[in-house]
Amino acid sequence: MGEINQNAVEKYLEENPAFAKEYFDKKLRVEVLGEIFKNSRVPVQASMSLPELTQVEESAVCLELLWSVQEEGSSAELTAHKVLQRMAQLLQADRCSMFICRSRNGTPEMASKLLDITPTSKFEDNFVVPDKEVVFPLDVGIVGWAAHTKKPLNVPDVKKNNHFSDFMDKQTGYVTKNLLAAPVVMGKEVLAVLVAVNKVNASEFSKQDEEVFTKYLNFVSVILKLHHTNYLYNIESRRSQILMWSANKVFEELTDVERQFHKALYTIRTYLNCERYSIGLLDMTKEKEFYDEWPIKLGEVEPYKGPKTPDGREVIFYKVIDYILHGKEEIKVIPTPPADHWTFVSGLPTYVAENGFICNMLNAPADEYFTFQTLTQFLGWSLLNTDTYEKMNKLENRKDIAQEMLMNHTKATPDEIKSILKFKEKLNIDSIEDCEEKQLVKILKEDLPDPQAVELYEFRFSDFPITEHELIKCGLRMFFEINVVEKFKVPVEVLTRWMYTVRKGYRAVTYHNWRHGFNVGQTMFTLLMTGRLKKYYTDLEAFAMLAAAFCHDIDHRGTNNLYQMKSTSPLARLHGSSILERHHLEYSKTLLKDESLNIFQNLNKRQYETVIHLFEVAIIATDLALYFKKRTMFQKIVDACEQMQTEEEAIKYVTIDPTKKEIIMAMMMTACDLSAITKPWEVQSQPMMDRNKKDELPKLQVGFIDFVCTFVYKEFSRFHKEITPMLNGLQNNRVEWKSLADEYDAKMKEIEEEMKKQEEGEVVVAQVAEDSGGGGVDDKKSKTCLML
Ligand SMILES: [Zn+2]
């Protein structure tokens, strides 16, 4: 026997396992082992392989790994690293690695997570940070093959294995000779693939190594499964957090849908692990507004041919909320987003809206799962939107009921009716039911003012000398003048009650009060009769137009649409546009639902529907925001009529097309609504003077006349020369306002120069303030140029 060295002893023991077993059983006792493992649990000795370990030692290793597994706060990678270290040691492998298997956009891929682990290597050196990962598809290499087949492999010589790929070796300069690979599987899913590379002191891994490999793989399997379950659990709990949040917050306040969207999405932003996401708010309206259909009906605009939602709506994203989370967090709200907005370019939101499918975009920069999640949210919220929308509709229904209840207080009382329809006094009949309709018509007409006396047919008509009560009678007079009372069998009691109730429906606000409502009705009447626009309309249509004009601002609260938007009233966001006008319309329709107020009660169904439609168009048309949509269309009609040879031709051109009639009517409503500005200077300057704004008012009026009014009356005068008095009135008032504005400017300039000259400028300013405060204009019927 030669020199006894470590290698020789090892060799001998390995070749004589029976001897070794017996020897260690005899010589080593548990206490001795305990002494060895006292300081560090199982010290790692590079030379020690499995056959060298006793069962006691092995169980200590297992126990240690178990401790690691259950250790709190330890990451899956860290624990897996410990296991792989042991594996490298026990298998006498040169190194071990772990590749995780994941899915990106539905395509599985492998990624290096722990590389080149030796029994003594440090975790930090083996752990691969995300941006250094080597990522490859499943059809590359033995690792990919193991994941694909879900089976362990023992490859004695990689050169002879056609799945082997040397791309990793080429990168690192390492030479792989033989290896063991095995997948970690959970259900149908492959979570990872472990590899042991290059057997030390042998040309290949043995059958026994395979067993050891599989055995220790179980540890990694437990760790990864635990980790994966945790991951799924986290997603689930995030999801329920989101849902909980929605339930609590979104339904808490239903005042403003968009604000709710924003709040909710801002909160979940941390869960959406992506760079940016967007919420497209889909227009919920099923039908186009009448004024948007006009250009289509006139053939000026192509009908919509784009995608539609499953319930038949056009896919219109009226607003996008953009959340940018990369770097500096930013939220942008984009109203009427352009088609090239980044979310739309892919066509995906439209596709989702069109089909209601959850879509996953390939090559999306965001991680697969979260892209999916984002889109799920997208759909989730669009569902929520519908839900909220319905709730708000219900809310509106409730409001209707409240309105009906309120109406009982607004509805004209029998005594109020008696103050106009004097059946008791004149017929000496106690109950109105006992009166004959003919008698009632007769006594009512007797008491209605003479149209000539009050200048009902004049564009210059002024309500100043007439009491508000008397204006009700003037209103009734006009219905008789256009001959609709008898023709459409309107019971005069109902007509009186309706007219009186409309008057009561107007609040005592500045400007948008009953006097304004009446004036708009009177101008409509004058346009039809004196302006001879009646020739384009049937009696029924004229009846509806006059009634709608009286109602057009009913229950106005004195604030404008901008105020409604800014105060985020619940209906503001729901309607989106013409908020107040829609309210006036609803109010007017509610009145008609009460049979005792329904002046259209003896019409047939089709006629009634015509009336309601005209009410809608006429009242909504008073939203000045729509004026700019209709003005060109109106101008074209006027142009065309100007070219006609005869009046009959022009009448035919207009009346044959209901759209043209609607456009003219809508423009008539604007002409009526703005008519105050066309009244004789004495009439209009009085109510327009606002003490607080006296100084700026002239300038504002001039601007308003130039920007809005002139077009209306110029075109109407061109259309029908009978309407010229309105244009004349307007132009005369412009001169007056302009001179006031100039006067004010001159005064201001003077003051400025004074101030430059004098060093005690303060004295001058005080003087001016006094001057402008002493206007002495009654501000009760004051205000307003721009509030229409
Ligand atoms: Zn108005």
UniProtKB/TrEMBL annotation:
E.C. no:
3.1.4.-
Indicate the secretion signal residues: none
Chain positions recorded as Zn(2+) 1 binding sites:
H516, H552, D553, D673
Protein name, as recorded: Phosphodiesterase
Name the InterPro entries on file.
GAF, GAF-like_dom_sf, HD/PDEase_dom, PDEase, PDEase_catalytic_dom, PDEase_catalytic_dom_sf, PDEase_CS
- Please provide the Gene Ontology terms (biological process) for this protein: signal transduction
What are the names of the required cofactors?
a divalent metal cation
Q: Which organism is it from?
A: Marmota marmota marmota
Give the cofactor binding note: Binds 2 divalent metal cations per subunit. Site 1 may preferentially bind zinc ions, while site 2 has a preference for magnesium and/or manganese ions.
- Residues that bind Zn(2+) 2, according to the entry? D553
Q: Which PROSITE patterns match?
A: PDEASE_I_1, PDEASE_I_2
The keyword Metal-binding appears for this protein: yes
SUPFAM superfamilies assigned to the protein according to its UniProt record, in alphabetical order: GAF domain-like, HD-domain/PDEase-like
Spell out the catalytic residues: H512 (proton donor)
Residue ranges of coiled coil: 385-412, 734-761
Q: Which gene encodes it?
A: PDE6C
Instruction: Give binding positions for AMP.
Output: H512, N513, W514, R515, H516, D553, D673, Q701
Q: Name one GO molecular function term.
A: metal ion binding
Q: Where is the PDEase domain?
A: 436-686, 687-744
